[in-house]
Design a protein that fits this description.
The chain has 220 residues and is an all-alpha fold. 79% of the residues lie in helices and 0% in strands.
């Protein structure tokens, strides 16, 4: 890291000239490292909320699955199919939650690496791209999470801009986009594997439960 960037990375305001202090005063919000750590903490909170949502959907999944089996054993195929369609929607939501959670987890790991290495511009670019994709997927189901992820993305974007100014490095948006897509693709692959392991198959004779269209986090 350059000496100038090191001073912005840690809080060393006493060493800054008066002109720099004025610049910081009119353009908050302080040293980079604490802001990055704050982003990590806020991201962890969103991951915890996704875990809680996943648990709720899992309980609903088991309940609906039991009803399907019950209807099937009673040869009530019409009722079994109704429940199967409901289960399809639930599993579609579970799939989206799992994908989003895995993507955010990868971002958290990368942000923690940044706090150690100071590799801000090249690492945070893909992170912001992933946050935007996940935020889009959360819009209808978790509007509060959408707003929070948007704010975290804005916080990281500000850090990227300031880090670029202080280090002289500029972000390659093409590379950042490719990096974000790679993270999303890897998260989707892991999510599919976990889904196959988690969800039991329906009884023979019941149409297989489709997962529906891909979530916004996979198509963004």
């Amino acid at each position: 890291m350059s000496e100038r960037f090191a001073k912005r990375w840690e809080d060393r305001r006493d060493d800054q000239p008066i002109t720099e202090r004025i610049k910081v005063a009119v353009r908050p919000p302080g040293p980079l490292k604490p802001r990055l750590n704050m982003a990590v903490k806020r991201l962890d909170v969103q991951i915890q909320k996704l875990d809680q949502a996943s648990e709720r959907f899992s309980k609903r999944d088991k309940s609906i699955f039991a009803r399907i089996v019950d209807a099937y054993t009673k040869h009530d195929m019409a009722r079994a199919n109704v429940f199967a369609n409901e289960l399809a929607e639930i599993r579609k939501m579970e799939r989206m939650i799992m994908h989003a959670r895995l993507a955010l987890e990868q971002i958290g790991l990368r942000l923690r690496t940044v706090s150690e290495l100071g590799d801000v511009v090249t690492t945070l670019g893909p992170a912001v791209g992933v946050l935007r994709a996940v935020k889009s997927g959360m819009a209808n189901m978790f509007p509060e999470a959408e707003r929070e992820l948007g704010q975290i993305g804005d916080l990281l974007s500000g850090i990227i801009m300031e880090a670029g100014e202080n280090t002289g490095f500029s972000m390659n948006f093409g590379t950042a986009s490719e990096g974000a897509q790679k993270i999303l693709t890897e998260a989707a692959a892991v999510a599919e594997q976990k889904i196959e392991e988690k969800f039991p198959e329906l009884p023979a004779g019941i149409p297989s439960v489709p997962f529906g269209e891909k979530s916004a986090t996979e198509t963004s």
